[in-house]
């Protein structure tokens, strides 16, 4: 098949969150299976240009309709670690993508509405006719709307759109100007609740809702989160729309790039290991203690790696740190927050615990250190309030770091409690709790730490169970190909 991803992110050249990793990992796996895959991105001024090979102006005269005129664009092509990419650069005083940042501008919705129109205009004018256009999150929610309402009548009637929602929190809520800018017009038509009209604000349109209504198939990033979005408040007001379109909505679990996150080959680890030879894991534990100046003693190391965001259950992360110390364990935290108040809180905590030989708090992100923390930890905590998919727990499993998670979203789809899961013991791989409170996380940590101290052979068996799981892009790619063929049929 010929597949084009239209996305606001791609690892490693334009990465803010997991969306970037998903687009890269899925694209590569689809290509491995013999499909032709291309990716369209904005040409941000803050791209990591050193990761793009052969960047060249391949389509220098693209005029994109915008309000009552057109904006001239150049389209550059280049390879990003084997992925063929096109980067759209508008030449306009609006300066859409020359802001030295990817998101966070007052006109983000207009910026990405323009990108959506430009991407599909590029497909039309360049003669590209993919079988599937795969769009992601609110930033490209207008693509299927534009395809059906405008480009369907200009020779693109055979293209089908698969739309993946990575985060329901941000939906692209706007008013009539975005319709006028993109050439859709007809506010009475699009403000209808059966099209783009926001269910909670009669004076607004919702770009994510447009993506749901107009796409051939809609996915989110885990089966559990699909259920949560459909039947709970995690759909952030889109539950009714998902119910109306239930027949074309489902969850596909994200994968992990095992060419990067793999203790057998990681270039960031001083000692490699696998499920059959765990000696390297224990050597990495010693290396982690040496690097972070932790006390060398017989105790488990528990870690947290990820964003310091309220979504992640920060009150539980903080409590896990102190409970670990209370139970004779050590704790390592690696993370940062876009919220200055949260960063200040954890800087205060870091200073408070600075002399404690059993704690290390590293604020920021360091990929090399992240690999070593996963490899040197015995357990990793992921106590999220909500978690559409989550990569931390899947990376932890791969590295033999037993996950302790809350039973939400992708965490519930990937971690199965050692003591209570309704499945054979060899398929159980971690510890799970349900309530987002101190008693909940303490119950799971108590069982995990107790097993580590009292039954070390059983703990080793549990981490081996986890390392045997395959959470690569192998199975997700199969699922997406089935969805693509279904959409084309």
Number of helical elements? 17
Residue runs with pLDDT of under 50 for 5 or more positions:
none
**What is the CATH architecture annotation of the largest domain?**
3-Layer(aba) Sandwich
What is the fold-level CATH name, i.e. the topology of the largest domain?
Answer: Rossmann fold
Question: What is the CATH superfamily of the largest domain?
Answer: Glycogen Phosphorylase B
Helix share bin: 25-40%
- According to DSSP, the number of beta strands is 17
In this structure, how is the largest beta sheet organized?
9 strands, mixed
Gross morphology is: elongated
Strand-residue proportion = 15-25%
Mean pLDDT: 97
Count of the separate structural domains: 2
Q: Main sheet: which strands, in order across?
A: 3-4-5-2-1-6-7-10-11
Tell me the distance between the termini: 13 Å
Radius of gyration: 23 Å
């Amino acid at each position: 098949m010929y597949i084009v991803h239209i996305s606001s992110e791609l690892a490693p050249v334009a990465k803010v969150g997991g969306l970037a990793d998903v687009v890269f990992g899925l694209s590569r796996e689809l290509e491995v299976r013999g499909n032709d895959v291309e990716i369209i991105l904005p040409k941000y001024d803050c791209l990591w240009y050193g990761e793009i090979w052969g960047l060249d102006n391949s389509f220098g005269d693209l005029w994109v309709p915008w309000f009552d005129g057109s904006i001239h664009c150049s389209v550059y092509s280049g390879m990003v670690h084997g992925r063929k990419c096109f980067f759209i650069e508008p030449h306009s005083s609006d300066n859409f993508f020359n802001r030295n940042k990817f998101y966070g501008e007052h006109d983000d919705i207009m910026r990405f509405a323009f990108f959506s129109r430009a991407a599909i205009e590029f497909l039309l004018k360049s003669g590209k006719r993919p079988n599937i256009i795969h769009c992601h999150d609110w930033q490209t929610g207008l693509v299927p709307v534009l395809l059906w309402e405008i480009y369907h009548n200009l020779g693109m009637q055979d293209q089908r759109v698969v739309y993946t929602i990575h985060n329901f929190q941000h939906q692209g809520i706007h008013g009539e100007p975005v319709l006028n800018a993109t050439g859709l017009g007809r506010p009475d038509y699009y403000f209808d609740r059966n099209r783009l009209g926001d269910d909670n604000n009669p004076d607004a349109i919702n770009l994510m809702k447009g993506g749901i209504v107009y796409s051939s198939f809609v996915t989110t990033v885990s089966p559990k989160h699909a259920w949560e979005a459909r039947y709970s408040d995690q759909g952030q007001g889109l539950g009714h729309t998902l119910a109306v379109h239930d027949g074309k909505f489902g969850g596909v679990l994200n994968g992990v790039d095992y060419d990067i996150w793999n203790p057998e080959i990681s270039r960031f680890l001083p000692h490699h290991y696998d499920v059959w030879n765990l000696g390297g894991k224990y050597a990495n534990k010693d290396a982690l203690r040496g690097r972070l100046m932790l006390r060398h003693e017989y105790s488990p190391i528990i870690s947290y790696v990820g964003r310091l965001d309220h979504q992640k259950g920060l009150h539980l992360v903080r409590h896990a740190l102190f409970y670990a110390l209370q139970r004779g364990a050590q704790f390592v935290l690696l993370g940062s927050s876009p919220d200055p108040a949260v960063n200040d809180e954890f800087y205060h905590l870091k200073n408070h615990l600075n002399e404690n030989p059993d704690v290390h708090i590293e604020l920021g992100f360091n990929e090399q250190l992240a690999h070593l923390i996963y490899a040197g930890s015995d357990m990793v905590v992921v106590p999220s309030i909500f978690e559409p998919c989550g990569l931390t727990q899947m990376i932890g499993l791969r590295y033999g770091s037993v996950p302790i998670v809350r039973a939400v979203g992708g965490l519930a789809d990937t971690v199965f409690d050692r003591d209570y899961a309704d499945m054979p013991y060899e398929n159980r791989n971690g510890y799970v709790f349900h309530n987002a409170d101190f008693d909940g996380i303490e119950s799971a940590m108590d069982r995990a730490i107790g097993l580590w101290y009292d039954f070390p052979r059983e703990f080793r068996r549990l981490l081996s169970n986890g390392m045997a799981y395959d959470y690569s892009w192998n199975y997700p790619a199969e699922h997406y190909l089935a969805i693509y063929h279904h959409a084309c049929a």
